[in-house]
Amino acid sequence: MIALSHVTKAFGPKQVLTGVDLVVPKGQSMVVIGGSGTGKSVLLKCILGLVQPDQGLITLDGQDVRTAEREAFLARFGMLFQGGALFDSLRVWENVAFRLLRGPLKRPKAEARAIAVEKLRRVGLTPETADLFPAELSGGMQKRVGLARAIAAQPEIIFFDEPTTGLDPIMAGVINDLIREIVTEMGATAITITHDMSSVRAIADRVAMLHDGVIQWTGPVAEMDNAPDPYLQQFIHGRAEGPIAAIR
Ligand SMILES: Nc1ncnc2c1ncn2[C@@H]1O[C@H](COP(=O)(O)OP(=O)(O)OP(=O)(O)O)[C@@H](O)[C@H]1O
């Protein structure tokens, strides 16, 4: 379980998080929605310890994340970054096996490659893809490679940062379905950041809306449509009119 309690973060005069309380139960898929610049990425970075909150407490399975040994802590996480973030100079399989070729999860090269090929298969890519370079792949294929990399080391927790950005609606649907299937079969805890409401409906067990530095609403995805919160309703229906200022 990941728990955030009264987490605040400012950059200079800019208050980004003003008191975030959020619980992500183990094995659940939480999707965080909210407008551009509301601090969704900052929230993920705080959990990972890449950004230090000014106040508040973040725990993973009851342990304050600040006291965890860094390498072992990060080894528990997988990440699918916005845009895939593949290394252009490495072959596809080396990208997928990146964390299996170095650091605390290092294993023999042949074994790392075999795992990479298996993970590529899991995301619908053939073994021939393994020896290509990222530039030789379409955007949708790159996203699949990023997903294979995120799951290669069997993480307990996976973060997906805008997993469908830049994809056509059909490929976005394929990636959403893959994420849902993989998270379920791995029993992983997942946090996804997205603006894409089709992702929310495909991926989420629970939804949290970040607005004005706090979690404005959180609940099961099944309750989202009927929740009375006007901020949430404006956001999920993409209305210009409502309590959230449309000019930013
Ligand atoms: N290292 C930093 N230094 C200064 N300001 C930062 C830093 N990181 C984030 N910010 C600011 O914090 C705010 C929130 O940024 P963040 O990237 O978390 O937004 P977001 O909700 O993920 O947005 P988007 O949906 O557009 O990706 C922004 O105003 C951003 O400029």
From TrEMBL:
Coiled-coil positions: none
Superkingdom, natural source: Bacteria
Database matches in PROSITE patterns: ABC_TRANSPORTER_1, ABC_TRANSPORTER_2
Keywords for this protein: ATP-binding, Nucleotide-binding, Transport
Pfam families to which the protein is assigned, alphabetical: ABC_tran (PF00005)
Keyword Transport: yes
InterPro entries: AAA+_ATPase, ABC_transporter-like_ATP-bd, ABC_transporter-like_CS, P-loop_NTPase
GO molecular function list: ATP binding; ATP hydrolysis activity
Domain ABC transporter: 2-237
Keyword ATP-binding in annotation: yes
Protein name: ATP-binding cassette domain-containing protein
